[in-house]
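Re: the multi-chain job from yesterday

Posting the exact lines I submitted so nobody has to dig through the queue logs.
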Amino acid sequence: MRRERREQLQTGLMLAPSVLLLALFILLPLCVVFAYSFALRDPYGAVLPGFTLDNYRELVQGVYLRVLMNSFSLAAWTTGLCLLIGYPVAYFIAFKAGRAAPALLLLLLIPFWINFLIRISAWVVLLGRGGLINKALVFSGVIDEPIGMLGTVGATLVGMVYAFLPMAVFPIYAALTPIDRRLMEAGADLGAGPAETFARVTLPLSLPGVLAAALFVFVPSMGVFAIPVLLGGGKDIILGNLIVQLFLEFRNIPVGAAVSILLLGFSGLGILLYMRALRRVEAMK
Amino acid sequence: MTPHSGRQGWFVRRVVHGISGWVTLLTYLFMLLPIVVLIAFAFNAGKSTVVWTGFSFKWFEKVVSNRNILDALQVSLIVALASAAVSTAIGSVAAVAITRRSFPGRDVLGAALAAPLVLPEIVLGVALLVFMSFAGMILGYTTLIIGHVLVSIPFATLIVRAAASSLDPRLENAAADLGANEWQTFRMVTLPQLMPAIFTAFILSATLSFDNLVMSTFTSGVGTTTLPLRIYSMLKLGITPEINALGALMVLANVTILLLVMGRYLPLMLKTNRR
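And the result, structure tokens for all chains:
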């Protein structure tokens, strides 16, 4: 009996720091932000107590609605491209690279050794008017004179895919490697062509990895702010820029809080969709 | 279920099987070429990051004598080491409790500790900023370290949890049979087996902190500008080979750390495996 009590006390002591950390610095702050998103604001930027839905009403108006659409389409494009490129890469590493697989995985991590801003700066240089890509295109005769690629949505997308691709490759790779090759061979033995084997064996078995990859790319891409500024010229404002501006430049904390809660809602929706899809996929097996 | 049309067969044969190699090759060029170009132009004599005018080390000299960069580096190192220590300590203890003890709400805590992985970091940063000013805390080292702990703790916890759940309980039972008390068992049997994971968690946490921009944007104060924040403001003014030289130095530092870690830990890991 005493032993049990002591063990309970020990467990409590072990859990205290992490529970405190989560409650004090995640849960409580999020509650404060939630409360602020309904608050009023005096002309000097101070938050006044009160309850209004105006902060949210402002979000569904023209300017903010465009920001929302911009963020959503950027995140969706980034996720789509990362999956489209990441799947074949993960497939190659898992099934075809053989003994080179560990080296290939390590190579994918090398970019992380340099601060990601500096990596993005490499793309600013490469995509510039005098950059290597323009030079190569002019030299090969594809274009007559350098074209302006910086400051376009395309340039932002290049940077986004560059930053998030490894996040897509790793979960898909992790889902592909444990697939029993004998299952794939059995498919072939039973007369299925490579298409059918892929569509009915490999792809369904790797779907949980694909879903995880989509989640790991989509959620952070909704909140980026540096890449669109450096590569896209900051023309298309997205949620990330908006939050930074509202909090640090305009000091409009109530509307900033409303935007943050909205972004949180989107991520929550993403997680919910992910879990539902995962349950569906697992039920299929 | 899926109709097996000829076109789909072609698609899968070419794209998934035949072309996966090509996609991989192009992807690796896409990922690595910018870094090669970046490092090459760190040695450029001129001010351009595009036109090569000759070889020189002058941009490296500029970096190591730039007060702003050195100050920011110091801040980043302090925050990285401190936040990694806190995060690894809290995360490891929680991981051991979650895998070893049963208590109500165990699954909830496990999920909550992983939550910062899927919550947008910018929202966590904003929330922390609002809360800190609400509580009257001044932005500085403390707020930076707390913020970075939030970013790294999911990784620290998951790494140690994975290691703790794959431990062989028979070893601990054997220790108990041989008369070791609970603390001795933990100290001499469990902990040594977890050390590689704890060390990995520390390194990863420190790396994440050192590279962090988003959380730092909201939690750094006057005089605690981190290196990524400094780089961001430098980039907004324009790119000179000084940035490239800084990037090249970062690669060098990382390779050195990796070699040191491998030199220290590889023999240890091989020994554990043989045992």
